[in-house]
Amino acid sequence: MATMKDVARLAGVSTSTVSHVINNNRYVSEGIRKKVNDAIETLNYAPSALARSLKMNCTHTIGMLVTASSNPFYAEVVRGVERSCYEKGYSLILCNTEGDYERMDSSLETLLQKRVDGLLLMSTEARAPSHEVLNRYPRLPMVMMDWSPFEYGGDIIQDNSLLGGEIATNYLIEKGFTEIACIAGPQDKLPAKHRLQGYYNAMQKAGLAIREEFVLTSDFEFAGGFSAMQKLLSLSVLPQAVFTCNDAMAVGAYQAIYQKGLRVPDDISVMGYDDIDLASYMIPPLSTIHQPKDELGKLAVSQLLHRMENIDAKDNVLVLTPKLIERGSVSNFVKSQ
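That's the Ribose operon repressor sequence above. Prediction below.
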């Protein structure tokens, strides 16, 4: 493999001149520039990204720690992150924790050893990565994306889940429903906790009673929504509507309702949260709360780049506003005579 010295020797110039031509950071006459470029082409020389990064102390690489899941929400956010990295001239290294603490710490160590310029964290684990690992890289810029409370520091970008839960539940109330169930996410996750609290707030403000058996917690996955909906459908009194605190669980709820021989929304209305791509293709299309996933990814990258340039700036919490999306899974409740 050709080196910069080989290019310099063939072109009859110094290695610093070759560097100036490659990086275009100093004036080089057109004649010399042509000699260098001809030598590069002849030798099929490719500059070493590693060597350049060591010299400039910058790899133009961002690391992202994420928990892989059957929930499409995470994949759609990662898509937005990758697109934004590409547009801004950065590479993205993605590590999947698979919900395992040991793997989370190992993956984090791998990213940091690769000298990433900054780190995005979007894992579903209840605890943050090991302090032992993070303390070895005390000034690494970090942005947390919709995670639980994180004591280490760094910017946080999150959905206003409390407001979103209230919007979803109020929509069902405005449609005339009074017997409303909620399939909540795992309560060690702050977004799940806030969405459930939004449900409680809306029900209480409307003066509606909340049946204890109508509130279930699950895992934000398809199967979790399916099993939780099965439990609701086994009750002697069925809910008129159900707020599933993410769209993946709504998909599972649809299947449970179908297997019971019932129909959405004729027999039971379903409200989701996230507005994943699949939501508009379900039968009927799912009414849900829109989370701006592409915007979340874009904002996370922009905030991380800002943090990389202003490492000592005060930590920020940026909150995205959820929005109601009306489709076909919620009907107007008609009281039987």
